Amino acid sequence: MLEGxxxxxxxxxxxxxxxxxxxxxxxxxxxxxxxFLGALALGxxxxxxxxxxxxxxxxxxxxxxxxALFGIGLSYVFVQFFFQSIADITQGMMFLGNPLLHLTxxxxxxxxxxxxxLGQTVPLLINTVNEKxxxxxxxxxxxxxxxxxxxxxxxITSLVLMYYLGVGYSIFINCLILxxxxxxxxxxxxxKTNYLVVFTxxxxxxxxxxxxxxxxxxxxATTPFSNxxxxxxxxxxxxxxxxxxASFIDDETHKGWPYIETIKKGVFSQxxxxxxxxxxxxxxxxxxAEDTHGANITYLDIDPEIKIIAEKYFLKEPIxxxxxxxxxxxxxxxxxxxxxxxxxxxxxxxxxxxxxxxTYEFFSLVSSKLNSDGMAVLNIAANPMLNDxxxxxxxxxxxxxxxxxxxxxxxxxxxxxxxxxxxxKTTEDSNKxxxxxxxxxxxxxxxxxxxxxxxxxxxxxxxxx
Length: 465
Prior knowledge:
Layout: H1 2-22, H2 26-48, H3 55-73, H4 76-89, H5 99-119, H6 121-127, H7 135-165, H8 167-185, H9 192-218, E1 221-222, E2 227-233, E3 236-241, E4 244-250, H10 258-267, E5 276-280, E6 296-301, H11 306-314, E7 322-325, H12 328-334, E8 339-344, H13 360-368, E9 370-382, H14 389-401, E10 403-409, E11 417-424, H15 428-432, H16 444-464
Helix pairs in contact: 1-2, 1-5, 1-7, 1-8, 2-5, 2-6, 3-5, 3-6, 3-8, 3-9, 4-5, 6-7, 7-8, 8-9, 13-14
């Protein structure tokens, strides 16, 4: 059961540790699960092929190898070194530079051997049972206990260890579980056992220092969702989440990154006194860092720790607004409130938007939660030239789900930049509205332009008062 506990913990930790480098998506998760199951099957097979005289020795060796691979190979320091090295080596190579290929390589080099060693545990233990016990009974008991351990490992690692203690402690505790397994299989009368104990304790001390002590110096918090820390900037502070410069605040002006200032300008250009604004993806809570302009601002983020870290290390003051810890799509589906403005700024790392918050259905859900004259503001990292499938399809998806979208970009170049969409709520009337061409044969452009200019002049006169 302890082996199953560590095996599932390994899978959860691998998914979590690779998020800052490949993002969180069904693609990355499928790669990890496939490599895990493939290595597990191979481990089961190989364990069943071992000679009887090697059963105990193989168990001990496999547990020692597993502790070392788990504690060092899955440490953030090694994971960062691995992915950055591969990215540097394959830079500019179209196929070899694919992050999913890097993830596959990591799984094959680190995770799969570890699972292979742990997978041998069940067949090896079955072969060491008392001769009076039927093999079918022993196999059923061992497999059942291992599966129970798998279930508990998933729940305990993700919902308890990573949630309350962080990723570093989760790795150390799983290595400690494997060390406890050693206690039950070693021969305590053998003189070599003393060396094994010293080696194991030394390994655990190194693993604790690498994953807990060192990680505590790198990050303000390591939650089930993010690695967070605050870094200095010549003019202020940067809030770094999963290796992404999520937010910036100027010490003097309290202004943020250019894209957030663009959002502020669009949102607060009109009278927002008493209006309700929902921000999906809290970041550093910089939308209201300067002023709320009389609006009621609600921030929503899946990570409950983000508010604590932002207030303590980034803003160094309480946030201006209300905070809710929840999944964005789940909140919109279950909350009946209508909003005047919904700002969507959701990322798992520097460029990856969660799949379930980047589809036509999600953006349509955002539209349905706006008041009749409400506005949706989306921060999308894409290529402004729309010359790749992702950027072109994302632009099309947004414009189909929402109405009358205009965009503002932080930079115009052939790479990923922040594109800010300002869109209206989609209604039956907006669907009926059909644009028409201005042609030389009519005066329509002059008439429409004159009417629009008159509306603007009236609006400016109202602002003076």
